[in-house]
Amino acid sequence: MALRVAGPSAIVAFGLNGLLALLTAFSFAELATAFPEAGGAYVYAKKVFPIGGGFAAGWVLWFAYAVACALYALGFGGFFAYGLEQASGWLGRPLAAPPWLPVLAAVLVAVLYAALLCTRGARAGNLVSLLKVVVFAALIASGLVALWARPAGTLAQAFTPLFPFGFGGTLAAMGFTFIALEGFEVVTTVSHEVRAPTRTIPRAMFLSIGITLLVYLGLLFVMLTAGGPPAGGEAWRELGEHGEAAVAVAARRASPVRSARGFVTAAGLLATFTALGAAMLGGSRVAYAMGCDRALPRGLARLQGRSGNPVRAVLLTAADRDRGSQPPPARSRPRAPPPR
């Protein structure tokens, strides 16, 4: 969509969105340093607004994370079904995935990640995140190698004109793509679980924005230069017509690997898996913080198991099953901010 409305200036749109994300991260970093507690934006809202305002902010934030979980889980299911169809074609027995398969895969991956969060906490999915970056880096590197073999003038042709729809098209692309850089704020929801949070949280947010921006800018650059049609022409226009399949089409042209489309599918599976985990982690910590403040049933604030994870908050249990029990132990409450 970004290529369709902005042309080559979609890469400018991502760069500008990166600057906006950095400005937002500075605010989150300052607040996380002042209040290194569980809950992220909910904590900041309850410090500023009356109890009603903080409660409303927490509910909205929790609901937003829940919607994001559903979105990413369904995205994973779609990539899973597409990958299964590809695999069946490679085996010589092509088949169409049944319509219920993406939904089933979405449910199973959500259950899997919930189990990982309950046992491993915020460390869940670290290896998958690293693998995701490696896969994207391999795609970008193969595209740069293919660009080297392209005829002279390919680079200039790919970015001429840079603003075919004016700067208005770039602004529209910014609106479509800013969500791709979101997620850094999830880091603040686990401030109470991080060693030296006043130093680690800001670094983690800025690194996440920087790495994400490098991946997207590199991928767009390769798509516009090495992923264009072999006969020449405006790569952005031709790729824009492919819609969601533009990345797969560009990867097949730019990568010397025969199964480049399979790499794109793997990258999509890894990306949606880690995005689901981030949304689920953030939502569970908001629910945990609200449970500690009695804004939600106090059962959500209970830490269980050797790992001390808020299992009920991860599972988004809305009902307090132990109404007659004692309040949660002191260790289950968010850590108080250090004296300043």
Q: Can you describe what's shown?
A:
This protein has 340 residues and is mainly α. Helix content is 64%, strand content 0%. The chain has one domain (2-85, 125-279): Up-down Bundle (Amino acid/polyamine transporter I). Helix 2 (10-34) runs antiparallel to helix 9 and helix 4 crosses helix 5. The longest helix has 40 residues, at 51-90.
Number of domains: 1
Structural class: mainly alpha
Could you say what the CATH architecture is?
Up-down Bundle
Number of helices: 13
CATH H level, superfamily name: Amino acid/polyamine transporter I
Terminal Cα span: 47 Å
* Rg, Cα atoms, Å: 22 Å
Overall geometry = globular
Structure at a glance:
The chain has 13 helices and no strands. It is mainly alpha-helical and about 350 residues long. It has a single domain, classed as Amino acid/polyamine transporter I.
